[in-house]
Write a structure and sequence with these properties.
Layout: E1 13-16, E2 27-31, H1 36-46, H2 53-56, E3 66-68, E4 76-85, E5 98-109, E6 112-119, E7 122-128, E8 159-160, E9 163-164, E10 166-171, E11 177-184, E12 190-191, H3 201-212, H4 234-237, E13 240-241, E14 244-245, H5 247-259, H6 271-277, E15 281-284, H7 287-294, E16 304-308, H8 309-314, H9 321-333, E17 358-361, H10 364-386, E18 391-392, E19 401-411, E20 417-421, E21 430-432, H11 451-456, E22 463-466, H12 468-475, H13 485-488, E23 501-504, H14 507-529, H15 532-535
Parallel strand pairs: 3-21
Antiparallel strand pairs: 1-4, 2-4, 4-11, 5-6, 5-9, 5-19, 6-7, 6-8, 10-11, 12-18, 13-14, 15-16, 15-17, 19-20, 22-23
Protein backbone atom coordinates (compact mmCIF):
# COMPACT_ATOMS: atom_id res chain seq x y z
CA UNK A 1 0.00 0.00 0.00
CA UNK A 2 1.35 3.42 -0.95
CA UNK A 3 1.43 5.58 2.19
CA UNK A 4 1.21 9.19 1.12
CA UNK A 5 2.82 10.83 4.20
CA UNK A 6 4.62 9.62 7.27
CA UNK A 7 2.28 9.89 10.30
CA UNK A 8 5.15 10.30 12.77
CA UNK A 9 6.07 13.96 13.00
CA UNK A 10 9.09 13.50 15.27
CA UNK A 11 11.38 12.54 12.43
CA UNK A 12 13.74 15.36 11.40
CA UNK A 13 13.20 17.06 8.06
CA UNK A 14 15.60 16.10 5.30
CA UNK A 15 16.34 18.16 2.17
CA UNK A 16 17.12 16.02 -0.89
CA UNK A 17 17.68 16.47 -4.61
CA UNK A 18 14.40 16.14 -6.56
CA UNK A 19 13.98 12.99 -8.64
CA UNK A 20 13.83 15.12 -11.79
CA UNK A 21 16.94 17.11 -10.83
CA UNK A 22 20.22 17.49 -12.64
CA UNK A 23 23.25 17.00 -10.45
CA UNK A 24 22.70 17.43 -6.72
CA UNK A 25 21.22 20.04 -4.43
CA UNK A 26 18.61 22.75 -4.92
CA UNK A 27 17.69 23.04 -8.59
CA UNK A 28 17.75 26.23 -10.69
CA UNK A 29 15.14 26.59 -13.44
CA UNK A 30 15.25 29.36 -16.04
CA UNK A 31 12.21 30.74 -17.88
CA UNK A 32 12.03 33.31 -20.66
CA UNK A 33 8.27 33.93 -20.57
CA UNK A 34 6.27 36.31 -18.37
CA UNK A 35 4.04 33.46 -17.09
CA UNK A 36 7.06 31.63 -15.69
CA UNK A 37 5.40 30.30 -12.52
CA UNK A 38 2.55 28.75 -14.50
CA UNK A 39 5.11 27.15 -16.81
CA UNK A 40 7.09 25.83 -13.83
CA UNK A 41 4.03 24.20 -12.23
CA UNK A 42 3.21 22.56 -15.56
CA UNK A 43 6.76 21.23 -15.88
CA UNK A 44 6.62 20.08 -12.26
CA UNK A 45 3.43 18.11 -12.92
CA UNK A 46 5.04 16.47 -15.95
CA UNK A 47 8.43 16.23 -14.18
CA UNK A 48 10.11 17.32 -17.39
CA UNK A 49 12.56 20.18 -17.11
CA UNK A 50 14.96 21.55 -19.70
CA UNK A 51 18.42 22.07 -18.23
CA UNK A 52 20.18 22.78 -21.55
CA UNK A 53 20.26 26.49 -20.66
CA UNK A 54 22.92 25.74 -18.03
CA UNK A 55 25.27 24.69 -20.82
CA UNK A 56 24.52 27.84 -22.81
CA UNK A 57 24.71 30.33 -19.92
CA UNK A 58 28.32 29.84 -18.90
CA UNK A 59 29.73 32.99 -20.48
CA UNK A 60 31.52 34.57 -17.52
CA UNK A 61 35.05 35.91 -18.02
CA UNK A 62 36.07 34.56 -14.61
CA UNK A 63 34.99 30.93 -14.50
CA UNK A 64 32.75 28.16 -15.82
CA UNK A 65 29.90 28.78 -13.36
CA UNK A 66 26.40 29.29 -14.72
CA UNK A 67 25.43 32.96 -15.10
CA UNK A 68 21.93 34.11 -14.14
CA UNK A 69 20.43 36.89 -16.20
CA UNK A 70 18.54 39.87 -14.78
CA UNK A 71 14.82 40.65 -15.19
CA UNK A 72 15.90 43.39 -17.61
CA UNK A 73 17.04 40.53 -19.86
CA UNK A 74 13.47 39.11 -19.79
CA UNK A 75 14.53 36.11 -17.73
CA UNK A 76 13.10 34.63 -14.52
CA UNK A 77 14.34 31.86 -12.22
CA UNK A 78 12.62 29.37 -9.94
CA UNK A 79 14.37 27.11 -7.43
CA UNK A 80 13.11 23.75 -6.17
CA UNK A 81 14.17 21.11 -3.64
CA UNK A 82 12.52 17.99 -2.21
CA UNK A 83 11.45 17.56 1.44
CA UNK A 84 11.18 14.20 3.17
CA UNK A 85 11.45 12.67 6.62
CA UNK A 86 14.82 11.45 7.79
CA UNK A 87 13.63 7.84 8.13
CA UNK A 88 13.89 4.53 6.34
CA UNK A 89 12.48 4.93 2.84
CA UNK A 90 12.52 8.73 3.17
CA UNK A 91 8.74 9.27 3.04
CA UNK A 92 7.49 12.62 1.80
CA UNK A 93 7.16 15.36 4.39
CA UNK A 94 3.57 16.23 5.23
CA UNK A 95 3.08 19.86 4.02
CA UNK A 96 0.83 20.50 7.02
CA UNK A 97 3.89 20.35 9.25
CA UNK A 98 5.41 23.36 7.50
CA UNK A 99 4.79 26.62 9.31
CA UNK A 100 6.91 28.68 6.89
CA UNK A 101 9.63 28.13 4.33
CA UNK A 102 12.03 30.28 2.39
CA UNK A 103 15.40 30.66 0.76
CA UNK A 104 18.39 32.90 1.33
CA UNK A 105 21.09 33.95 -1.11
CA UNK A 106 24.64 33.72 0.19
CA UNK A 107 27.71 35.34 -1.33
CA UNK A 108 30.80 33.13 -1.44
CA UNK A 109 34.21 34.80 -1.67
CA UNK A 110 37.79 34.04 -0.70
CA UNK A 111 37.14 36.09 2.45
CA UNK A 112 34.25 33.84 3.54
CA UNK A 113 30.47 33.61 3.28
CA UNK A 114 28.24 36.69 3.44
CA UNK A 115 24.51 37.22 3.97
CA UNK A 116 22.33 40.04 2.63
CA UNK A 117 21.06 41.72 5.79
CA UNK A 118 18.11 43.99 6.56
CA UNK A 119 17.68 46.34 9.48
CA UNK A 120 14.12 47.55 10.12
CA UNK A 121 13.20 46.47 6.59
CA UNK A 122 16.04 48.52 5.07
CA UNK A 123 18.93 46.67 3.34
CA UNK A 124 22.36 47.27 4.86
CA UNK A 125 24.38 45.13 2.44
CA UNK A 126 26.47 41.98 2.67
CA UNK A 127 27.52 41.02 6.20
CA UNK A 128 29.52 38.02 7.43
CA UNK A 129 27.20 35.03 7.79
CA UNK A 130 26.42 33.71 11.27
CA UNK A 131 28.17 30.41 11.94
CA UNK A 132 26.07 27.39 12.88
CA UNK A 133 22.29 27.10 13.11
CA UNK A 134 20.37 30.34 13.57
CA UNK A 135 17.06 31.69 12.37
CA UNK A 136 17.38 34.36 9.68
CA UNK A 137 14.90 36.49 11.63
CA UNK A 138 16.85 38.05 14.49
CA UNK A 139 13.62 38.41 16.49
CA UNK A 140 13.17 34.61 16.59
CA UNK A 141 15.36 32.88 19.19
CA UNK A 142 16.52 29.32 18.65
CA UNK A 143 16.96 26.90 21.55
CA UNK A 144 19.70 24.31 21.62
CA UNK A 145 17.23 21.58 20.57
CA UNK A 146 16.26 23.60 17.44
CA UNK A 147 12.93 24.73 18.90
CA UNK A 148 12.01 28.31 17.94
CA UNK A 149 10.51 30.83 20.32
CA UNK A 150 7.60 32.84 18.85
CA UNK A 151 8.63 35.94 16.97
CA UNK A 152 8.73 39.16 18.93
CA UNK A 153 5.87 41.35 17.77
CA UNK A 154 7.57 44.11 15.81
CA UNK A 155 6.24 46.03 12.81
CA UNK A 156 9.55 45.77 10.96
CA UNK A 157 11.91 42.95 10.04
CA UNK A 158 15.58 42.75 11.02
CA UNK A 159 17.79 39.89 9.91
CA UNK A 160 18.88 38.07 6.77
CA UNK A 161 16.72 38.75 3.74
CA UNK A 162 14.54 35.75 2.92
CA UNK A 163 12.33 34.93 -0.04
CA UNK A 164 9.23 32.72 0.38
CA UNK A 165 9.00 29.14 -0.81
CA UNK A 166 5.88 26.98 -1.18
CA UNK A 167 5.19 23.27 -0.87
CA UNK A 168 3.62 21.20 -3.65
CA UNK A 169 2.91 17.44 -3.57
CA UNK A 170 3.42 15.38 -6.73
CA UNK A 171 3.69 11.74 -7.76
CA UNK A 172 6.78 10.54 -9.56
CA UNK A 173 6.75 8.09 -12.47
CA UNK A 174 6.69 5.18 -10.02
CA UNK A 175 3.69 6.51 -8.12
CA UNK A 176 5.60 7.64 -5.03
CA UNK A 177 4.38 10.81 -3.36
CA UNK A 178 6.94 13.60 -3.06
CA UNK A 179 6.85 17.03 -1.45
CA UNK A 180 8.56 19.72 -3.51
CA UNK A 181 9.52 23.10 -2.10
CA UNK A 182 9.75 25.82 -4.74
CA UNK A 183 10.05 29.59 -4.92
CA UNK A 184 10.94 32.54 -7.12
CA UNK A 185 14.61 33.52 -7.12
CA UNK A 186 15.01 37.33 -7.42
CA UNK A 187 18.40 38.41 -8.74
CA UNK A 188 17.82 42.12 -8.17
CA UNK A 189 18.35 44.44 -5.27
CA UNK A 190 20.34 47.42 -4.05
CA UNK A 191 21.13 49.37 -0.91
CA UNK A 192 22.49 52.72 0.14
CA UNK A 193 25.67 52.15 2.12
CA UNK A 194 25.82 53.81 5.52
CA UNK A 195 28.25 56.67 5.97
CA UNK A 196 31.62 55.45 7.24
CA UNK A 197 32.33 57.30 10.44
CA UNK A 198 35.80 55.85 10.89
CA UNK A 199 37.26 54.48 7.65
CA UNK A 200 40.35 52.34 7.87
CA UNK A 201 43.75 54.04 7.81
CA UNK A 202 44.54 52.58 4.38
CA UNK A 203 41.20 53.79 2.93
CA UNK A 204 41.63 57.25 4.45
CA UNK A 205 45.20 57.59 3.16
CA UNK A 206 44.26 56.43 -0.34
CA UNK A 207 41.29 58.83 -0.51
CA UNK A 208 43.40 61.71 0.77
CA UNK A 209 46.09 61.08 -1.85
CA UNK A 210 43.54 60.99 -4.67
CA UNK A 211 41.77 64.17 -3.52
CA UNK A 212 45.09 65.99 -3.26
CA UNK A 213 45.54 65.54 -7.02
CA UNK A 214 42.30 67.31 -7.98
CA UNK A 215 43.89 70.78 -8.13
CA UNK A 216 47.42 71.97 -8.95
CA UNK A 217 49.67 73.40 -6.29
CA UNK A 218 49.23 75.72 -4.36
CA UNK A 219 45.47 74.93 -4.15
CA UNK A 220 46.03 71.18 -4.33
CA UNK A 221 49.00 68.86 -4.53
CA UNK A 222 48.98 68.02 -8.22
CA UNK A 223 52.24 68.97 -9.91
CA UNK A 224 51.33 71.66 -12.42
CA UNK A 225 53.51 73.34 -15.03
CA UNK A 226 54.93 75.81 -12.49
CA UNK A 227 55.48 73.25 -9.74
CA UNK A 228 58.98 73.40 -8.25
CA UNK A 229 58.29 71.62 -4.98
CA UNK A 230 56.06 72.72 -2.15
CA UNK A 231 57.79 76.09 -1.85
CA UNK A 232 55.78 79.29 -1.78
CA UNK A 233 56.45 81.59 -4.72
CA UNK A 234 55.64 85.26 -5.05
CA UNK A 235 53.74 84.58 -8.32
CA UNK A 236 51.23 82.57 -6.31
CA UNK A 237 50.82 85.43 -3.85
CA UNK A 238 49.31 87.49 -6.69
CA UNK A 239 47.24 84.96 -8.67
CA UNK A 240 45.40 87.74 -10.58
CA UNK A 241 47.29 90.80 -11.90
CA UNK A 242 45.06 93.50 -13.41
CA UNK A 243 42.46 90.87 -14.22
CA UNK A 244 44.96 88.41 -15.75
CA UNK A 245 44.93 85.12 -13.76
CA UNK A 246 47.51 82.37 -13.52
CA UNK A 247 46.44 78.93 -14.72
CA UNK A 248 46.39 77.52 -11.16
CA UNK A 249 43.90 80.20 -10.06
CA UNK A 250 41.78 79.46 -13.12
CA UNK A 251 41.57 75.81 -12.03
CA UNK A 252 40.65 76.95 -8.50
CA UNK A 253 37.97 79.31 -9.79
CA UNK A 254 36.59 76.55 -11.99
CA UNK A 255 36.28 74.21 -8.99
CA UNK A 256 34.65 76.88 -6.82
CA UNK A 257 32.09 77.82 -9.45
CA UNK A 258 31.32 74.62 -11.35
CA UNK A 259 31.75 71.99 -8.64
CA UNK A 260 30.68 73.85 -5.50
CA UNK A 261 28.70 76.79 -7.04
CA UNK A 262 30.23 79.03 -4.43
CA UNK A 263 28.44 82.38 -4.26
CA UNK A 264 25.97 81.45 -7.01
CA UNK A 265 23.64 79.37 -4.80
CA UNK A 266 22.81 79.27 -1.11
CA UNK A 267 24.46 76.17 0.31
CA UNK A 268 25.25 75.84 4.04
CA UNK A 269 27.95 73.28 3.24
CA UNK A 270 29.95 76.07 1.61
CA UNK A 271 30.20 78.03 4.87
CA UNK A 272 33.89 77.28 5.42
CA UNK A 273 34.81 78.23 1.85
CA UNK A 274 32.70 81.37 2.20
CA UNK A 275 34.57 82.41 5.36
CA UNK A 276 37.93 81.91 3.66
CA UNK A 277 37.06 83.77 0.46
CA UNK A 278 35.60 86.66 2.47
CA UNK A 279 39.16 87.37 3.70
CA UNK A 280 40.92 87.15 0.33
CA UNK A 281 40.80 90.59 -1.37
CA UNK A 282 41.24 92.28 -4.69
CA UNK A 283 43.32 95.49 -4.52
CA UNK A 284 43.08 98.39 -6.94
CA UNK A 285 46.35 98.60 -8.89
CA UNK A 286 47.77 100.26 -11.95
CA UNK A 287 50.36 98.57 -14.16
CA UNK A 288 53.33 99.83 -12.13
CA UNK A 289 51.84 98.84 -8.81
CA UNK A 290 50.79 95.44 -10.17
CA UNK A 291 54.34 94.67 -11.39
CA UNK A 292 55.87 95.76 -8.08
CA UNK A 293 53.32 93.68 -6.19
CA UNK A 294 54.14 90.68 -8.36
CA UNK A 295 57.83 90.87 -7.43
CA UNK A 296 57.18 91.68 -3.78
CA UNK A 297 58.38 95.28 -3.99
CA UNK A 298 55.19 96.76 -2.58
CA UNK A 299 52.82 95.75 0.22
CA UNK A 300 49.03 95.96 0.22
CA UNK A 301 49.15 98.60 2.97
CA UNK A 302 49.88 101.22 0.29
CA UNK A 303 47.01 100.05 -1.95
CA UNK A 304 43.28 100.64 -1.90
CA UNK A 305 41.17 97.61 -1.05
CA UNK A 306 38.56 96.69 -3.65
CA UNK A 307 36.28 93.67 -3.05
CA UNK A 308 36.75 90.25 -1.51
CA UNK A 309 36.79 87.08 -3.61
CA UNK A 310 33.44 86.17 -2.05
CA UNK A 311 31.93 89.52 -3.07
CA UNK A 312 33.29 89.01 -6.57
CA UNK A 313 31.59 85.61 -6.90
CA UNK A 314 28.28 86.74 -5.39
CA UNK A 315 28.17 89.79 -7.67
CA UNK A 316 27.27 87.45 -10.56
CA UNK A 317 24.39 85.83 -8.70
CA UNK A 318 21.38 88.16 -9.18
CA UNK A 319 21.17 88.45 -12.94
CA UNK A 320 24.31 87.58 -14.89
CA UNK A 321 25.91 84.42 -13.50
CA UNK A 322 26.15 83.09 -17.05
CA UNK A 323 28.91 85.65 -17.75
CA UNK A 324 31.32 83.85 -15.43
CA UNK A 325 30.25 80.40 -16.65
CA UNK A 326 30.74 81.44 -20.28
CA UNK A 327 34.19 82.82 -19.48
CA UNK A 328 35.26 79.56 -17.84
CA UNK A 329 34.11 77.53 -20.84
CA UNK A 330 35.71 79.88 -23.37
CA UNK A 331 38.96 80.12 -21.44
CA UNK A 332 39.19 76.33 -21.26
CA UNK A 333 38.86 76.09 -25.03
CA UNK A 334 41.56 78.71 -25.72
CA UNK A 335 43.90 78.49 -22.74
CA UNK A 336 47.01 80.29 -23.98
CA UNK A 337 49.62 80.75 -21.25
CA UNK A 338 52.43 83.31 -21.39
CA UNK A 339 56.00 82.88 -20.17
CA UNK A 340 54.97 83.86 -16.63
CA UNK A 341 52.27 81.16 -16.49
CA UNK A 342 49.34 83.59 -16.86
CA UNK A 343 46.33 83.13 -19.12
CA UNK A 344 46.36 85.48 -22.08
CA UNK A 345 43.07 84.80 -23.86
CA UNK A 346 40.61 86.69 -21.69
CA UNK A 347 40.77 88.65 -18.46
CA UNK A 348 38.71 87.56 -15.49
CA UNK A 349 35.18 88.84 -16.19
CA UNK A 350 34.03 91.77 -14.15
CA UNK A 351 30.59 92.41 -12.77
CA UNK A 352 28.80 95.74 -12.69
CA UNK A 353 30.13 96.65 -9.25
CA UNK A 354 33.75 95.45 -9.62
CA UNK A 355 36.03 97.09 -12.15
CA UNK A 356 38.97 95.05 -13.30
CA UNK A 357 42.03 97.09 -12.88
CA UNK A 358 42.48 95.02 -9.72
CA UNK A 359 44.88 92.36 -8.48
CA UNK A 360 44.13 89.51 -6.09
CA UNK A 361 46.51 88.92 -3.18
CA UNK A 362 46.71 85.64 -1.28
CA UNK A 363 49.04 84.51 1.50
CA UNK A 364 50.68 81.13 1.96
CA UNK A 365 48.44 80.44 4.97
CA UNK A 366 45.27 81.29 3.00
CA UNK A 367 46.29 78.93 0.20
CA UNK A 368 46.94 76.18 2.76
CA UNK A 369 43.52 76.71 4.38
CA UNK A 370 41.88 76.60 0.95
CA UNK A 371 43.59 73.29 0.17
CA UNK A 372 42.23 71.67 3.30
CA UNK A 373 38.77 73.26 3.02
CA UNK A 374 38.37 72.11 -0.58
CA UNK A 375 39.41 68.57 0.35
CA UNK A 376 36.90 68.41 3.20
CA UNK A 377 34.19 69.88 0.97
CA UNK A 378 34.77 67.20 -1.69
CA UNK A 379 34.71 64.46 0.98
CA UNK A 380 31.39 65.77 2.30
CA UNK A 381 29.96 65.96 -1.21
CA UNK A 382 30.95 62.35 -1.84
CA UNK A 383 29.40 61.19 1.42
CA UNK A 384 26.14 62.99 0.65
CA UNK A 385 26.03 61.55 -2.86
CA UNK A 386 26.76 58.02 -1.63
CA UNK A 387 23.59 58.24 0.47
CA UNK A 388 21.53 58.93 -2.66
CA UNK A 389 23.02 56.49 -5.19
CA UNK A 390 22.02 52.85 -4.56
CA UNK A 391 24.71 50.18 -4.78
CA UNK A 392 23.61 47.02 -6.67
CA UNK A 393 23.23 43.84 -4.65
CA UNK A 394 25.05 41.59 -7.10
CA UNK A 395 28.56 42.31 -8.36
CA UNK A 396 30.35 40.83 -11.36
CA UNK A 397 33.91 40.53 -10.07
CA UNK A 398 36.11 37.45 -10.21
CA UNK A 399 35.43 36.69 -6.56
CA UNK A 400 31.64 37.20 -6.67
CA UNK A 401 29.91 33.81 -6.48
CA UNK A 402 26.42 33.18 -5.11
CA UNK A 403 24.43 30.22 -3.79
CA UNK A 404 20.84 29.50 -2.73
CA UNK A 405 20.19 27.78 0.61
CA UNK A 406 16.61 26.71 1.52
CA UNK A 407 15.18 26.45 5.04
CA UNK A 408 11.86 25.57 6.69
CA UNK A 409 10.19 25.97 10.06
CA UNK A 410 8.25 22.75 10.77
CA UNK A 411 6.11 21.53 13.68
CA UNK A 412 6.76 18.35 15.66
CA UNK A 413 4.27 16.12 17.59
CA UNK A 414 4.32 18.57 20.52
CA UNK A 415 3.31 21.37 18.14
CA UNK A 416 6.69 23.03 18.68
CA UNK A 417 8.27 24.78 15.73
CA UNK A 418 11.74 23.57 14.77
CA UNK A 419 14.18 25.10 12.29
CA UNK A 420 15.82 23.08 9.50
CA UNK A 421 18.43 24.34 7.06
CA UNK A 422 19.20 22.75 3.69
CA UNK A 423 22.92 23.60 3.69
CA UNK A 424 23.81 20.10 2.49
CA UNK A 425 21.47 20.58 -0.48
CA UNK A 426 22.44 24.14 -1.41
CA UNK A 427 22.29 25.09 -5.08
CA UNK A 428 25.25 25.11 -7.38
CA UNK A 429 27.42 28.23 -7.31
CA UNK A 430 26.36 30.84 -9.85
CA UNK A 431 27.22 34.33 -11.01
CA UNK A 432 24.90 37.20 -11.91
CA UNK A 433 25.15 39.03 -15.24
CA UNK A 434 25.67 42.77 -15.52
CA UNK A 435 22.78 44.83 -16.96
CA UNK A 436 24.86 45.70 -20.04
CA UNK A 437 26.27 42.19 -20.62
CA UNK A 438 25.83 41.49 -24.31
CA UNK A 439 25.89 37.72 -23.73
CA UNK A 440 22.95 37.98 -21.33
CA UNK A 441 20.84 40.40 -23.36
CA UNK A 442 17.85 39.28 -25.39
CA UNK A 443 16.17 41.20 -28.22
CA UNK A 444 13.45 43.62 -27.16
CA UNK A 445 10.86 43.87 -29.90
CA UNK A 446 9.67 47.41 -30.65
CA UNK A 447 7.24 47.85 -33.51
CA UNK A 448 8.46 50.59 -35.89
CA UNK A 449 5.58 52.30 -37.75
CA UNK A 450 5.24 52.07 -41.49
CA UNK A 451 5.25 55.15 -43.72
CA UNK A 452 1.48 54.77 -44.06
CA UNK A 453 1.17 55.31 -40.31
CA UNK A 454 3.27 58.48 -40.53
CA UNK A 455 0.99 60.04 -43.10
CA UNK A 456 -1.94 59.81 -40.70
CA UNK A 457 -0.16 62.32 -38.47
CA UNK A 458 -2.33 61.74 -35.45
CA UNK A 459 -0.91 63.59 -32.45
CA UNK A 460 -2.07 61.07 -29.85
CA UNK A 461 1.24 60.10 -28.32
CA UNK A 462 3.34 61.56 -25.48
CA UNK A 463 1.84 64.69 -23.92
CA UNK A 464 4.05 67.31 -22.26
CA UNK A 465 2.50 69.97 -20.04
CA UNK A 466 4.32 73.19 -20.89
CA UNK A 467 4.46 76.56 -19.09
CA UNK A 468 3.87 79.70 -21.20
CA UNK A 469 7.52 80.82 -21.48
CA UNK A 470 8.65 77.38 -22.66
CA UNK A 471 5.74 77.22 -25.10
CA UNK A 472 6.80 80.60 -26.51
CA UNK A 473 10.35 79.31 -26.99
CA UNK A 474 9.34 76.04 -28.67
CA UNK A 475 6.68 77.62 -30.82
CA UNK A 476 9.21 80.18 -32.16
CA UNK A 477 11.57 77.53 -33.55
CA UNK A 478 12.38 78.20 -37.20
CA UNK A 479 13.58 75.60 -39.67
CA UNK A 480 16.82 77.43 -40.59
CA UNK A 481 17.17 80.17 -38.00
CA UNK A 482 16.42 78.21 -34.84
CA UNK A 483 15.33 80.53 -32.01
CA UNK A 484 15.59 84.28 -32.54
CA UNK A 485 17.34 86.57 -30.05
CA UNK A 486 14.08 88.16 -28.98
CA UNK A 487 12.68 84.82 -27.88
CA UNK A 488 15.92 83.47 -26.40
CA UNK A 489 16.39 86.45 -24.08
CA UNK A 490 15.78 86.49 -20.37
CA UNK A 491 12.14 85.64 -19.46
CA UNK A 492 10.00 88.49 -18.16
CA UNK A 493 9.67 88.73 -14.35
CA UNK A 494 6.55 87.36 -12.73
CA UNK A 495 3.96 85.04 -14.21
CA UNK A 496 2.61 84.93 -17.75
CA UNK A 497 -1.09 84.58 -17.10
CA UNK A 498 -3.10 81.60 -15.93
CA UNK A 499 -2.87 79.51 -19.11
CA UNK A 500 -0.46 76.69 -19.88
CA UNK A 501 -0.11 74.40 -22.88
CA UNK A 502 -0.15 70.66 -23.44
CA UNK A 503 2.17 69.63 -26.26
CA UNK A 504 1.09 66.32 -27.85
CA UNK A 505 3.30 64.42 -30.29
CA UNK A 506 2.51 61.80 -32.88
CA UNK A 507 3.84 58.52 -31.51
CA UNK A 508 4.72 56.99 -34.94
CA UNK A 509 6.74 60.07 -35.89
CA UNK A 510 8.54 60.21 -32.53
CA UNK A 511 9.50 56.52 -32.88
CA UNK A 512 10.85 56.95 -36.40
CA UNK A 513 12.72 60.17 -35.56
CA UNK A 514 14.39 58.44 -32.60
CA UNK A 515 15.45 55.56 -34.84
CA UNK A 516 16.81 57.86 -37.56
CA UNK A 517 18.79 59.93 -35.05
CA UNK A 518 20.21 56.76 -33.50
CA UNK A 519 21.37 55.47 -36.89
CA UNK A 520 22.95 58.85 -37.76
CA UNK A 521 24.87 59.04 -34.48
CA UNK A 522 26.02 55.42 -34.74
CA UNK A 523 27.22 56.01 -38.30
CA UNK A 524 29.17 59.13 -37.25
CA UNK A 525 30.82 57.41 -34.30
CA UNK A 526 31.63 54.45 -36.52
CA UNK A 527 34.13 56.69 -38.33
CA UNK A 528 36.25 56.74 -35.16
CA UNK A 529 35.41 53.52 -33.34
CA UNK A 530 34.60 51.14 -36.24
CA UNK A 531 31.88 49.44 -34.22
CA UNK A 532 29.13 49.14 -36.84
CA UNK A 533 29.39 45.31 -37.11
CA UNK A 534 28.62 45.02 -33.38
CA UNK A 535 25.83 47.61 -33.26
CA UNK A 536 23.12 46.38 -35.60
CA UNK A 537 22.10 43.25 -37.38
CA UNK A 538 19.23 42.88 -39.82
CA UNK A 539 17.45 39.52 -39.40
CA UNK A 540 14.52 38.64 -41.70
CA UNK A 541 11.53 36.95 -40.06
CA UNK A 542 8.17 35.90 -41.57
CA UNK A 543 5.42 38.44 -41.11
CA UNK A 544 2.89 37.34 -38.50
CA UNK A 545 -0.68 37.87 -39.72
Amino acid sequence: MNIRFNANQDHPVLFTTPSYGQGSGTQLHRYLVPEFMTKFLKDLGNQQFNFNWQTEDRFSDWGNEVVLRLPIHHSSYVVSVELCCDHIGQPALNPQRIESAGLVIRKKTNQGEFSWMLEDDEPIGWQTSVQGLADPDLDRHLCRDNILHPRNKKPTYTGEQTHPMHAQTIQDTKGKHRTILFGYLPVVGSYRPPQKVNPSNDEADKLSDELDQLLPWPYGYAKGANYTGQIWRQAWAVPVVNGQPINEFFQLLKALVEQHQLGLTENPDNQQLKSLTENIYFWKTNNTEANKLLYGDISTSSLQKDKSLWQYLTSFKPYSSHRLIEWLAKQEQQSNIDSRGRLTHLPVPYSDNISFTSSLVMTDAQARWLREALKQRVIKQGEELSQQIPVPKFDQGEDDLYQVIPFIRAKDNANKVRLYWGNEQASQLFRVAAPFDAEASRPSMIQVPSLKDLRKGLAKGPALITPPDTYKLLNALKLKKGVTEEVAGDPPPGGSGGIQWVLVFSLPIVTLVAMILLMIIVSLLNIVFFWMPWVKQWIPIPKVK
